[in-house]
């Protein structure tokens, strides 16, 4: 009896230890750090106060960075949903052979390091990059279009990084649907576009919503892509935290920013989830 | 005039022929069943009529019009899918109204017709529910209402009752027949369940390996099967290998091993044949009157009936007797069997496989 109860705990012990050591400990230490104080001569002092939070929340500079970060994440999510949903549907309708090939194409990018992919984007988007050179050679433009170090460039690269997650989420939802529902709609007189809008899309919605959740939270905390494509000029929250830690050496302030990011992303996720559950209660399992 | 006519309809998937020169016509108001074992091409036939598969050959005529170039959405057929295929994100009312919406039926009339269709299937009180909040039988009715509300010329049903449990299936059979007759809609049902086909249809088309084997009323198909497959697929039957020795106007002479049997007049030629004898047509009698005697091997109680397996010199014979409360033979007992000559059916012998 006693042994029976202990077994699940024993079996999950390695995972629990890993979780505690690798995730909870640094998180707690970051939280503690965010309450400490810092000055340029004395360094970090083990005091306890809210002045770091007051600094961040009282400075319009940080508001701008947070605003930009969430805007980039939001636009990335929207584009991923708009592009990824039809793509997942086409994948579903493909012949098995082509489907395997296309799934590899979609998931392939996940196998390559984000840094490598983003550097690729930097080569494409730079003032003397492939795209601008091509346009100049075609005499379509005479001055390069600025794409590096813009929010637009970051969004573009983030969409590329994040879209597999959206496609996978929508794909999973579409696979749960009964393919006969599309035939039923067709037999009742619906055109293909109507079938997609009225029958497929609503059934894919749970997948789109959960995909959005993943893409949004990953984009809001993405580091490598905005670091390479945005540099110092287009700062987002994660690159700001990095700078506070490694350049200014103001660890407590960096920790406070990180905690604010964490809490706000969590809050957005929970609110979103609530909304979705309320909207679709009763309709889907 | 026939509403639906299938002429030499054929469908090949690569090397396999799923439907093979299938010809059938369905009259207005008729209830016809396509009956056959799994994989015989029933669904494929239905899918071609519905417009979801293109025939490899032959033609489909609806009211005399060739459907070859008519897309599924313009055929105006009511279809009930095996999985029901209800739209999970729409209420019952929205599901039923979808076809009317696609036909741009104005709001007032739409509401009236939805209400009438739900009334027909006795579901008016659940119009606001979502499909997953309903039982299998209720979903089944919603699917029927959704197919009937567009007033189709032809209703196609693909194994509509196979997802229901036995008790509910019987109830729904009666219900389906009532609804079909009230709506007066011409219906083509696909099923592998012979009792379902017999209970529901005016006419049964028995299919095997993509071909039409026999087309007849349920009684006729059961009582006068034209081949061994139909006789064993529709109900239980004793199939006895025999040799037809002689046919005369007043009867036939059959030989099974060293037993001679009298048979009904038959157009068959002398030679090897198959005799089909229904278990419920066999009677117990005195030794003197017996055609054959044997020992009861197994006795199975089925509630309203007893089923006996009797070992005889003709092979193992199934005998069914109604449970009327009398004493029935015990396993091991010797019994004497007889039947009326006209209950024997002489069929062409199965070609040796
Ligand atoms: N898309 C397809 N590609 C290749 N073969 C197919 C395809 N669809 C059906 N078949 C074959 O055609 C034959 C008939 O299939 P069909 O689905 O019509 O059978 P069915 O009579 O409806 O059987 P069941 O009672 O099991 O539903 C089967 O042998 C099946 O393997
Ligand atoms: Mg089938």
Automatic annotation (TrEMBL), chain A:
Q: ABC transmembrane type-1 domain: from which residue to which, for each copy?
A: 66-272
Report how it sits in the membrane.
Answer: Multi-pass membrane protein
**Location(s) in or outside the cell:** Cell membrane
Main localization of the protein described in the UniProt heading? membrane
Q: Which UniProt keywords apply?
A: Cell membrane, Membrane, Transmembrane, Transmembrane helix, Transport
Q: Report the InterPro entries cross-referenced here.
A: MetI-like, MetI-like_sf
Q: Where are the transmembrane segments?
A: 70-92, 104-127, 147-174, 207-229, 249-272
Task: Note the coiled coil stretches, chain numbering.
Answer: none
Pfam family membership, one: BPD_transp_1
Family, as annotated: Belongs to the binding-protein-dependent transport system permease family. CysTW subfamily.
Q: What is this protein called?
A: ABC transporter permease
* Organism for this UniProt entry: Jiella sonneratiae
Cite the source lineage: Bacteria, Pseudomonadati, Pseudomonadota, Alphaproteobacteria, Hyphomicrobiales
Automatic annotation (TrEMBL), chain B:
The record's section on Gene3D superfamilies has: 2.40.50.100, P-loop containing nucleotide triphosphate hydrolases
Q: Which domain of life is it from?
A: Bacteria
Checking Pfam families in the record gives: ABC_tran, TOBE_2
**What keywords appear on the UniProt entry?**
ATP-binding, Nucleotide-binding, Transport
- Annotated ABC transporter domain ranges read 4-234
Which sequence ranges form a coiled-coil region, renumbered to this chain? none
UniProt-recorded Gene Ontology molecular function terms: ATP binding
The family this protein is said to belong to: Belongs to the ABC transporter superfamily.
Q: Give the protein name, as stated in the record.
A: ABC transporter ATP-binding protein
Source organism per entry reads: Jiella sonneratiae
């Amino acid at each position: 009896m006693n042994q029976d109860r202990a077994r699940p705990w024993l079996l999950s012990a390695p995972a629990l230890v890993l979780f505690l050591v690798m995730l909870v400990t640094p998180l707690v230490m970051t939280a503690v750090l965010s309450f400490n104080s810092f000055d340029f001569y004395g360094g970090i002092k083990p005091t306890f106060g809210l002045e770091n939070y007051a600094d961040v929340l009282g400075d319009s500079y940080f508001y701008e960075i947070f605003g930009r970060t969430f805007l980039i994440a939001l636009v990335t999510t929207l584009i991923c949903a708009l592009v990824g949903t039809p793509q997942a549907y086409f994948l579903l309708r493909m012949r098995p052979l082509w489907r395997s090939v296309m799934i590899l194409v979609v998931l392939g990018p996940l196998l390559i390091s984000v840094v490598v992919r983003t550097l690729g984007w930097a080569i494409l988007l730079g003032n003397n990059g492939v795209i601008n050179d091509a346009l100049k050679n075609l005499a379509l433009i005479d001055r390069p279009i600025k794409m590096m170090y813009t929010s637009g460039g970051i969004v573009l690269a983030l969409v590329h990084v994040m879209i597999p997650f959206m496609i996978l989420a929508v794909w999973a939802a579409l696979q749960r649907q009964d393919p006969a529902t599309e035939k039923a709609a067709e037999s009742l007189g619906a055109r293909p576009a109507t079938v997609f809008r009225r029958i497929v899309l609503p059934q894919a919605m749970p997948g789109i919503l959960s995909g959005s959740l993943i893409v949004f939270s990953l984009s809001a905390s993405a580091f490598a892509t905005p670091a390479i494509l945005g540099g110092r000029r287009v700062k987002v929250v994660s690159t700001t935290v990095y700078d506070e830690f490694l350049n200014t050496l103001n660890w407590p302030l960096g920790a406070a920013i990180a905690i604010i990011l964490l809490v706000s992303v969590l809050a957005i996720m929970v609110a979103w989830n609530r909304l979705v559950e309320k909207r679709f209660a009763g309709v889907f399992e | 005039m026939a509403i639906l006519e299938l002429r030499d309809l054929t469908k090949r998937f690569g090397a396999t022929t799923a439907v093979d020169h299938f010809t059938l016509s369905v009259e207005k108001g008729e209830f016809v069943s396509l009956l056959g074992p799994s994989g015989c091409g029933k669904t494929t036939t239905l899918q071609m009529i519905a417009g979801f598969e293109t025939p490899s050959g032959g033609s489909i005529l609806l009211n005399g019009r060739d459907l070859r170039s008519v897309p599924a959405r313009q055929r105006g057929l009511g279809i009930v899918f095996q999985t029901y295929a209800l739209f999970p994100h729409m209420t019952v009312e929205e599901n039923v109204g979808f076809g009317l919406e696609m036909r741009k039926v104005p709001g007032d009339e739409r509401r009236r017709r939805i209400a009438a269709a739900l009334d027909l299937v006795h579901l008016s009180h659940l119009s606001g529910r979502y499909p997953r909040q309903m039982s299998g039988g209720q979903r089944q009715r919603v699917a029927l209402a959704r197919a009937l509300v567009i007033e189709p010329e032809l209703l196609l049903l693909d194994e509509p009752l196979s997802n229901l449990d036995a008790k509910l299936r019987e109830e729904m059979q009666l219900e389906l027949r009532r609804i079909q007759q009230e709506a007066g809609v011409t219906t083509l049902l696909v099923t592998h369940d012979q009792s379902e086909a017999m209970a529901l249809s005016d006419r049964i088309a028995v299919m095997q390996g993509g071909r039409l084997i026999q087309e007849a009323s349920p009684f006729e198909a059961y009582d006068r099967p034209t081949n061994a497959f139909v006789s064993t697929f529709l109900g239980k039957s004793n199939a006895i290998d025999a040799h037809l020795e002689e046919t005369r106007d007043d009867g036939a002479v059959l030989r099974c091993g060293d037993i001679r049997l009298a048979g009904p007049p038959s157009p068959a030629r002398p030679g090897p044949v198959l005799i089909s004898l229904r278990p419920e047509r066999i009677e117990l009698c005195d030794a003197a009157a017996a055609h054959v005697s044997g020992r009861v091997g197994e006795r199975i109680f089925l509630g309203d009936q007893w089923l006996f397996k009797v070992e005889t010199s003709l092979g193992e014979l199934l005998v069914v007797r109604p449970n009327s409360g009398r004493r029935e033979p015990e396993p091991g007992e010797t019994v004497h069997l007889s039947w009326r000559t006209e209950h024997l059916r002489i069929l062409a012998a199965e070609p040796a496989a």
